[in-house]
Amino acid sequence: MNLMMIFRTAWRSLSVNKMRSVLTALGIIIGVGSVIMMVALSKGATAGITARIASMGTNILQIFPSGGRAVGGAGALTLEDSQALWQLPYVKNVAPVAESSVTAAVGSITWKATANGTTPEMESIKGWAFPAGGFFTAQDVDNMSMVAVIGQTVADNLFPGVQVPIGTGMRINGLDFTIIGVLPVQGAGGMGGDQDNTIFVPISTVQQRLVGNQNLRQIVVQASDQDALPFLQNAVTSVLRERHRLAQDADNDFRIMDMAELLSTVEDTTRILTLLLGGIAAVSLIVGGIGVMNIMLVSVTERTREIGIRMAVGATTRDILNQFMIEAILLCLIGGALGSLLGWGLSRLFGSLSGWTMQVPVWSAIIAIAFSSLIGVVFGFYPARKAAEADPIEALRYE
Known about the structure:
By secondary structure, the protein is α+β, with helices and mostly antiparallel strands. Helix content is 57%, strand content 18%.
């Protein structure tokens, strides 16, 4: 019996009990679909997070007070600290940031946002392309100008349904500001939070009018070359320790975040997460394989007389083994293919409904179908061997 004939015979055998074949394949379909969904979710999350971190720039160092939001005393960062960092080699830009939670208002509409006081260098570091207006200048910082650049979330809530007219007035904590620009959409931040729910104003204005002190939330340092980051990080550490008069054995009163290192850590973590989620989903494939073995054992018992007749007319033990193995593999292959389509479809649907990024890599479908075929081989072998080892005389007597 040639291979093509064995496939045709296996297909006819599965077609005889359509409902049973469908229900048996359902375990494989659900298993493969689950694997595809989990991998798509994990890969999408990975792509989204890494894209957001990469958008901040991988040649960036972010310096924070060791206590988070230090207001004064030990651990506080100052404008003088940021100015000292300009003197270091490989520094392309330095942007100090002072931060405050504020209430913005236009007419009777109010909205809570984060006001970030900074310098014009922040525009260069971020590489923003403004859809409307632009950023403030060094002269605005020197003059403590009451100007503001707003994020898209702020714009949508203060000006619902209309484009923000540049030059429009707004109030921030009761003070009058003029809107000079609208930031491009940035989405969620690498650490969570809405980057579009922000207002940028000159740092002098924030410190004197909104915060009331000279301390910084962070200092952003852009290196001229990503390869220079390790050297620059050490140099920044030395300068700040000296400026903060830290003893040789004292811990740093600041912390430095290397965006390139953070990106690498996130990629490694999400890779492990992808394997973990895929492995958990693959357990359902094992359960589906057990279902295939169970049904194949039932099929062997039901077709004992058929097996005897085949052997009586010349079918070899190998022919019988191949037939039942092919049936199990064919069942799992069909289930794997349908499961891949189901997983792809559900991933697209879930992504469109939730707004989450879902990526279905081709390799996940290939691996899932290959694994489902392996399930057919592993769990189909015992029933097939049992059928092949049947005594033809006893099989013919079976009722």
